[in-house]
Amino acid sequence: MSNGYQPVSCATEALLARMVSSGEIAEIFYRDEAGQVQQVHDVIRDLFVRAGESFLLMERRQLIRLDHIFSINGQPLGQPLKNSGVA
Residue 56 to residues 16, 40, 45: CA-CA distances in angstroms? Predict the structure, then answer.
Protein backbone atom coordinates (compact mmCIF):
# COMPACT_ATOMS: atom_id res chain seq x y z
CA MET A 1 0.00 0.00 0.00
CA SER A 2 1.07 3.54 -0.66
CA ASN A 3 1.93 5.48 2.49
CA GLY A 4 0.87 8.80 0.90
CA TYR A 5 -2.48 9.70 2.40
CA GLN A 6 -5.25 10.49 -0.12
CA PRO A 7 -8.04 12.62 1.39
CA VAL A 8 -11.55 11.18 1.09
CA SER A 9 -14.62 13.10 -0.05
CA CYS A 10 -16.60 15.31 2.30
CA ALA A 11 -19.65 13.12 1.54
CA THR A 12 -17.77 10.04 2.78
CA GLU A 13 -16.63 11.81 5.95
CA ALA A 14 -20.20 13.06 6.56
CA LEU A 15 -21.61 9.55 6.13
CA LEU A 16 -19.05 8.12 8.56
CA ALA A 17 -19.79 10.87 11.09
CA ARG A 18 -23.51 9.96 10.93
CA MET A 19 -22.60 6.30 11.41
CA VAL A 20 -20.57 7.18 14.52
CA SER A 21 -23.65 8.92 15.95
CA SER A 22 -26.01 6.08 15.05
CA GLY A 23 -24.11 3.31 16.82
CA GLU A 24 -25.18 0.84 14.12
CA ILE A 25 -22.95 -1.96 12.86
CA ALA A 26 -21.16 -1.10 9.63
CA GLU A 27 -19.78 -3.44 6.98
CA ILE A 28 -16.46 -2.07 5.74
CA PHE A 29 -14.11 -3.45 3.10
CA TYR A 30 -10.61 -2.00 3.00
CA ARG A 31 -7.02 -2.81 2.06
CA ASP A 32 -4.58 -3.37 4.91
CA GLU A 33 -0.96 -2.14 4.90
CA ALA A 34 0.08 -5.26 2.94
CA GLY A 35 -2.55 -4.54 0.27
CA GLN A 36 -4.77 -7.47 1.28
CA VAL A 37 -8.55 -7.03 1.24
CA GLN A 38 -10.06 -7.08 4.72
CA GLN A 39 -13.69 -7.03 5.86
CA VAL A 40 -14.99 -5.84 9.20
CA HIS A 41 -18.49 -5.81 10.71
CA ASP A 42 -18.38 -3.55 13.74
CA VAL A 43 -19.66 -0.33 15.28
CA ILE A 44 -17.70 2.80 14.40
CA ARG A 45 -16.81 4.53 17.68
CA ASP A 46 -14.82 7.53 16.45
CA LEU A 47 -13.63 9.39 13.37
CA PHE A 48 -10.44 11.37 13.95
CA VAL A 49 -7.32 12.86 12.37
CA ARG A 50 -3.79 11.98 13.47
CA ALA A 51 -0.68 13.39 11.78
CA GLY A 52 -2.79 14.63 8.86
CA GLU A 53 -4.44 11.24 8.20
CA SER A 54 -8.09 10.39 8.96
CA PHE A 55 -8.97 7.16 10.77
CA LEU A 56 -11.94 5.20 12.05
CA LEU A 57 -11.79 3.65 15.49
CA MET A 58 -13.97 0.58 15.62
CA GLU A 59 -15.66 -0.74 18.76
CA ARG A 60 -13.13 -3.61 18.97
CA ARG A 61 -10.31 -0.99 19.02
CA GLN A 62 -9.28 -1.57 15.38
CA LEU A 63 -7.98 1.48 13.47
CA ILE A 64 -8.78 1.84 9.76
CA ARG A 65 -7.28 4.61 7.66
CA LEU A 66 -10.06 6.25 5.65
CA ASP A 67 -8.24 6.23 2.32
CA HIS A 68 -7.86 2.44 2.55
CA ILE A 69 -11.66 1.91 2.61
CA PHE A 70 -13.27 1.00 -0.70
CA SER A 71 -16.78 -0.07 0.36
CA ILE A 72 -19.15 0.91 3.17
CA ASN A 73 -22.36 -1.09 3.71
CA GLY A 74 -22.16 -2.56 0.22
CA GLN A 75 -21.64 0.74 -1.58
CA PRO A 76 -18.34 1.27 -3.39
CA LEU A 77 -16.59 4.52 -2.57
CA GLY A 78 -15.70 6.79 -5.44
CA GLN A 79 -19.34 6.79 -6.55
CA PRO A 80 -21.99 9.20 -5.31
CA LEU A 81 -23.08 7.98 -1.89
CA LYS A 82 -26.72 7.01 -1.53
CA ASN A 83 -28.63 7.97 1.57
CA SER A 84 -27.70 5.18 3.96
CA GLY A 85 -30.82 5.64 6.04
CA VAL A 86 -28.63 6.60 8.98
CA ALA A 87 -30.14 9.70 10.61
Answer: 8, 12, 7
